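The authors assume throughout that readers already know how a fold can be written as discrete tokens. What matters is that the chain and its backbone geometry are given together, residue for residue. A single example would do more here than another paragraph of explanation. For illustration, here is how one protein appears when written out as sequence plus structure tokens.
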Amino acid sequence: MDTRWFKEDRDQARAEGIPDKPLKEESKKALKNSTLFQRRLTRILEEEYEKTLISDENFSNPSWERQYVANASRRATLKEIIKMIDLKEAKTNG
């Protein structure tokens, strides 16, 4: 799970002078219970990703090279967002 999900918890804990672990655990529990939202958003983002692949095949557009570069950038952004909203625990080696 991306640590950026817990930035607000860390900031709140610092401001209140309390440990952030209880806040992070509460947030983690709430986020993991939001699986319907996460699953649907992931599906939407993956569909948008697929659309960029299809439009790359449109060579009739005079500026298809620019479109290809724009689509490649969009795909990278979409994948980054999909990875960020993946609420599974990160696997560590060892």
